[in-house]
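Run Glyoxalase/bleomycin resistance protein/dioxygenase superfamily protein through structure prediction, thanks.
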Amino acid sequence: MKAIAPFHLAFPIKDIESTRKFYHEVLGCTIGRSTEKWIDFDFFGHQLSAHVNTSEPQQTATSVVDGKQVPLRHFGAVLEWEDWHNLAERLKANKTEFLLAPSLRFQGEAGEQATMFFLDPSGNALEFKSFKDQSQLFAK
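Sure, done. The structure for Glyoxalase/bleomycin resistance protein/dioxygenase superfamily protein is below.
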């Protein structure tokens, strides 16, 4: 697999402090530049820019994937197997409310993966996944 270039994602948040605490203290992201209106994070090697938005958040539509309702709008990261399990334990210790609790999806099929969905303090849906066999990332 070739090296993956970092991506940049900008997304809305309610406030800087709850976002800083969640992404830095709970998820372990390094904090980059910030102002009173936005904050950047090193999100597992990628650049997230969280921007304060005072308007009402959009309703999250869902879709069925492997028999489970998942948010259509979401982002996250693919982690190494052990890192994914460590994050799942850290989220449980922080009493994170899961939309989809840590579990295995597509068991015994192409693309078998560990996955979990939860919301950040601003209601943004995140998914973290992992593959025992990273070559399954784009398996059909």
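The chain has a mean pLDDT of 91.
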